[in-house]
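Re: your question about Phosphatidylglycerol--prolipoprotein diacylglyceryl transferase

S., sorry for the slow reply, the queue was backed up all week. Below is exactly what I fed in.
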Amino acid sequence: MLSYPTIDPVALQLGPLAIHWYGLMYLIGIGGAWWLARLRLAGFDPTWSRDKLSDLVFWVALGVIAGGRLGYILFYDLGSYLSNPALVLKVWQGGMSFHGGLIGVLLAVWWFARRNNKRFFELMDFVAPMVPIGLGAGRIGNFINAELWGRATDAPWAMVFPTDPLQLARHPSQLYQFALEGVALFAILWLYSRKPRPTMAVSGLFGVCYGIFRFLVEFVREPDAHIGYLAFGWFTMGQLLSLPMILIGAGMMLWAYRKQERNA
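Result:
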């Protein structure tokens, strides 16, 4: 069994102002996405200025934060937030939903595409390879917060998390998700998007790969205590939300390539 490297969730204390690692991870994710977007901008639209790119990153980041928070409230813990609305503002304590954040990103990209005479999926294909940077950073934030840990296991790399009331050795599922949703997904999308692809294909591949990775990790991740298992007493909320992503993503790729063949 490995020892959990206890890290103070507060990275820096400046008087009454506490800067949390969780928030810093979001800044790292947004900054990394902006840097990558700059590298890919010339191949996407050489007429775009850096200011326009910064505007895009700003709106996408806003979609991630607002959508992620709202998605967590609606999908995972509506009762707690209705009884204590002040919890909405305490984002440093965690409580972000990827699927809610994805909806926020889709809305932000749709709005930005309309204002800049771009097709929605043309812009989404540009944005998709940048998303894993934020996903990976967010999972490191979950690990530092000692939240969203995995199920009990006797694996030699298991850890006991200080926030676990049962103090069981568990899968460090946050690190699994960092490796899959962050590193692996980034590599797949980066390599795939280096060559010209039919519009919608990159976005579809993102949906397929993320959905599969998330669905698999949920088998070793402890479900939220107040939700537990849902369908058939086995599947989790994360799995139920990921299944449509896999199916829709596969359909998008199929549609994109068939459309390309018809237009060839």
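The chain has one domain: 10-263. Strands lie at 10-14, 17-20, 159-160, 169-170.

Happy to talk it through on Thursday.
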